[in-house]
Amino acid sequence: MPTQTLLKIPAQSRILKNTFPILKNCVDFFVKNQLEYGDIYEANVLRYTIAVITHPDHIRHVLISNKKNYGKSEEYEILKLALGNGLLTSEGEFWKKQRRIAQPAFYKDSLASFVQTMEAATLDLIQKYKGNNKGVDTNIGLMFNALTLEIVANCLFGAELSNKQHEIHHAVNYANEYLTKKIMTPFYPPFWFPTPSTLQFKKSRKEIDDIIFGIIHERQKRSDTTSKDLLAMLMHTKDEETGETMTAQQLRDEIITLFVAGHETTANALTWTLYLLGQHPDKFQKLQKEVDQVLDGKSISLHNLRELIYTQQVIDESMRLYPPAWTISRKALSTDEIGGYKIPQNAIVSVNVFGMHRHPDFWEQPNDFVPERFAPEKKKQIPKLAYITFGAGQRMCIGNNFALMEMKIVLALLVKNLDFKLKNTNQVHYTPLITLKPSEHILMDINSRD
After folding, report:
1. Cα separation, 282 vs 443, whole angstroms
2. What is the rounded average pLDDT of the residues 46-67?
3. Which of 59, 136, 54 is nearest to 419 (CA)?
4. DSSP secondary structure letter of residue 17
5. Alpha carbon of 404 to those of 106, 304, 306: distances in Å?
6. Distance, CA of 369 to CA of 279 (rounded, Å)
7. Predicted TM-score (pTM) above 0.90
8. Strands 327-332, 348-352: parallel, antiparallel or unpaired by DSSP?
9. Which of 144, 172, 200, 155 is nearest to 260 (CA)?
10. What is the mean pLDDT of residues 103-121?
């Protein structure tokens, strides 16, 4: 069959085409047009050719089988303003070298040392609600944002950031907001133009750099070999091929990447998880029953984490319905063909992760919260690449084991010690920024189970 031209969906505006519907809510735009035009189409927007794909075979082609033809899209250049040349934004041989050096720090055995750190931070949060019989209406998005930031800070730096956490929390949050606006707003002023928001971003970036470089240089000066945190692991691990270690700048870029990606995505995933459990009290009770049985009088350990099978199913199903990374973008380096359709050189290929996770051809009851679909015997039947919460191929998120362990620990301890009642009466929609966030505050009445 001859190669076909990509179907260009009708434009809503003669001049601006579909630019503003995509900017208003890209996920809604993807979902609507997937239902109407299928698993591959051109979005028909200003400036770019955007091919949207929502099929495992197409995703495999872009992320695995022909990955050499698909580089990072322009969005990642914007992220570099804050993250530098870390694993999320770098490419080619430099990325391969960085990945080799960083990978050992994220093996499951290496992560075991962080179980107690995650447990301690969560128990500190729980203590705030102990003995409170009247209940507290809590914005769980803010609650999880603060908790995951504390956890990632302690895992990265140990106790060295304790007196700087508020400062870096504010700076990281501002940088996140700035980059989101710059990515989502097509007419945002260039970075060299001194708008108040850009000047504030540069100030926040300098505050972050001063703190992180200060810690790195202090450790290098004293040849620290006693610390067991992630920074220490990254500092002392050598490239198995060259024997090199990371420079201070490389360490800074990887640490910032882990800091930003390691708390916002996890916070959003936990927020959506509690929201879904609040909508489904039967699932919440089933989860509590498992946690009570497994953690009966015990502290968290790697062994009993493995026994929390339904807990993992709940997390998997929550991230299926609300994947923090709702899309993956790549740029075609040369002309290609996907599923019989021509992909022009320089086209942006957008992997519709949200739509893939709810594709009716691959999921029964695709829009329903059914953790049981991830039971061990059923999980094997899920088609490969129909579930890509952490990406796929060689660039799969390096922190996936860290994030899953953290979510499991936090969720298990929370439901073991606390009860949650959802206060939102209407369905909460999503806002696709850099990560998939709730469109409004999710409020819960939190009570101690004591």
Report:
1. 19
2. 95
3. 136
4. B
5. 12, 14, 11
6. 9
7. yes
8. antiparallel
9. 172
10. 88
Mean local confidence (pLDDT), 301-309 = 93
Residue 215 main-chain phi, psi, to 5 deg = -65, -45
Alpha carbon dihedral 13, 18, 19, 22, in 10-degree steps, equals: 140
Count CA within 13 A, CB hemisphere, residue 233.
22
Output the average pLDDT for the chain.
90
Host domain of residue 50: 4-448
Residue whose C-alpha is closest to residue 114's, from 314, 397, 409: 409
**Strands, E, within 191-298: which ranges?**
none
C-alpha triplet 336, 435, 118: angle, nearest 5°: 125
Q: Read off the CATH number of the domain in which 22 is found.
A: 1.10.630.10
Residue 24 is predicted with a pLDDT of: 86
Q: Is the pLDDT of residue 388 over 80?
A: yes
Q: How many domains does the chain have?
A: 1
Structure tokens at 64: 């695995």
Q: What is the mean pLDDT of residues 381-392?
A: 94
What residue type is assigned to position 418 of the chain?
L
Reported residue count of the chain is 450
Q: Which long-range contacts (CB under 8 A, 24 or more apart) does 244-248 make?
A: 244/97, 244/101, 245/101, 246/98, 246/101, 248/213, 248/216, 248/217, 248/220
Give the single-character DSSP code of 62: I
- The 8-class DSSP code of residue 442 comes to -
Q: Angle of helix 196-221 relative to helix 165-184, nearest 10 degrees?
A: 130
